[in-house]
Amino acid sequence: MRRWVAFAFCTCVLTGTPAVFADAGTLPGSSLRASGFLGNYADLSKVPGRLDTWQWVRPGVDWKPYDKILVQPIEVWINTEAAYPGIEPGLYKQLTDHFRQTLIDTFRAGGYQIVDKPGPGVLRLHLALTGVTPERPALTPLDILPIKLAFNVLRGATGTDKTVIAVSGEVEALDAVSGQRLYAQVTTRKDAHLFVATNLTWEDVREGASEWAEQARARLDKARTGPP
């Protein structure tokens, strides 16, 4: 089974028009282009694991009080290099709704309270599905989405990949009262550039949402039981 992305946050109702993919340079030590959603990627560091993950944690944060979660609407960032720029709003809403509900269910099962407004002890999650490359809908099985997993945007003289846009999950966790960023992460599948012709399936979505949500909750659980 392809488990394309380990998002712990991607889950909410898509409203309005998806944002366009911006050139924010590449992620540190890689050929994967950053979307621009997080703004600053220079402070992120690569961390070991099965997936390609970069993260930043604000030093000295006391995570113990954060027992409530506020999930902002997910943003979908479209790759402007896509040959077919059309989108289906209903499809993207269904995609982000599924992620949101998976995230909510996972944190709730771990004893966290899901809230809809800022307050003391509330961790606000701001999430985005980035590098989305739409494709022209075709007569394919219903489980296959018209979204490409990765897209080469530049080739060198030798024909080898120079820069790659890949479907990724980006998230920032903020103190809901002060708005201060406490954590940031970008996650994508390893060797994403090998999957240029691979389309996203609903099975990928289900597995990715569950894996990412479980990892996010486990990370917060560990932070809340450790020293500040």
Write the layout of secondary structure elements.
Layout: E1 19-20, E2 45-47, E3 52-57, E4 68-71, E5 75-78, H1 89-109, E6 113-114, E7 122-134, E8 144-148, E9 150-155, E10 161-166, E11 168-175, E12 181-188, E13 199-201, H2 202-225
Parallel strand pairs: 1-5, 4-6, 4-7, 5-7
Antiparallel strand pairs: 2-3, 3-12, 7-8, 7-11, 8-13, 9-10, 11-12
Helix pairs in contact: 1-2
Produce a short descriptive summary:
The chain is 20% helix and 31% strand. The chain is of the alpha/beta class and 228 residues long.
Which characteristics define this entry?
228 residues, two-stranded antiparallel sheet, single chain, disordered N terminus, 2 helices, alpha/beta
